[in-house]
TrEMBL record:
Identification of the protein by name: TRAP transporter small permease protein
Species of origin: Bradyrhizobium niftali
Domain of life of the source: Bacteria
Lineage: Bacteria, Pseudomonadati, Pseudomonadota, Alphaproteobacteria, Hyphomicrobiales
Family: Belongs to the TRAP transporter small permease family.
Compartment(s): Cell inner membrane
Subunit details: The complex comprises the extracytoplasmic solute receptor protein and the two transmembrane proteins.
Keyword Cell membrane: yes
Length: 192
């Protein structure tokens, strides 16, 4: 038995075709909603503020104090507005183990109760943030002469979006007859 390798001659055209790129997959931006783009914009403002803080601190050796505050407030906006994206996609942490052992009707009822509790929680959070804004919304930021109510309104907007998205998710669960708690495989692509 020979251990010699056998090579086939290839033409220049075959070599040239190996460098051709496959057709690029189509980009679908339709899966993103309003809050996704707002959170992305706030994230980039935060990233620029952090970069400016790094540059001024370590390159110029004289940091701008306001960049840290702006980055902190942007992070608050990203978290609360971005959380509505997680509500829309049902991606928050949840425990679905018990639903595997419950009868279908009990699991369906419990899932509906969870949806209603989520809606009530976000509604109550809206009220609390609104009261908070009324009490201390006129305070100024520490390093910039701007009112903090911009930050609080971003939190309020995040809770309003989470409330709206939780209502939409609850309606979707009612229409389809199950939720992510009952059938997680239907949401992560593992269920056929």
């Amino acid at each position: 038995m020979s251990t010699a390798e056998i090579h086939r001659q290839i033409t220049a055209d075959e070599i040239a075709h190996t460098f051709e790129e496959e057709a690029a997959p189509k980009v679908d931006l339709g899966i993103y909603a309003f809050e996704d783009w707002v959170a992305l914009a706030i994230f980039w403002v935060m990233a620029l503020a952090v970069f400016l803080q790094f540059f001024t601190r370590y390159v110029l050796n004289d940091s701008y104090a306001w960049t840290e505050e702006i980055a902190t407030y942007c992070l608050i906006g990203v978290v609360f507005i971005g959380a509505s994206m997680c509500v829309r996609l049902s991606r928050h942490i949840q425990v679905d183990l018990i639903y595997r052992y419950l009868p279908h009707l009990v699991a369906r009822a419990l899932s509906t109760v969870i949806d209603l509790i989520r809606i009530a929680f976000f509604g109550y959070a809206i009220k609390l943030v609104w009261v908070y804004i009324q009490i201390i919304g006129d305070e100024s930021m520490t390093t910039i002469n701007l009112p903090k109510d911009y930050v609080y309104y971003a939190v309020l907007a995040g809770f309003v979006l989470m409330f709206v998205r939780s209502v939409q998710v609850a309606l979707q669960h009612l229409r389809q007859g199950y939720s992510i708690l009952e059938r997680p495989g239907a949401y992560d692509g593992f269920e056929g």
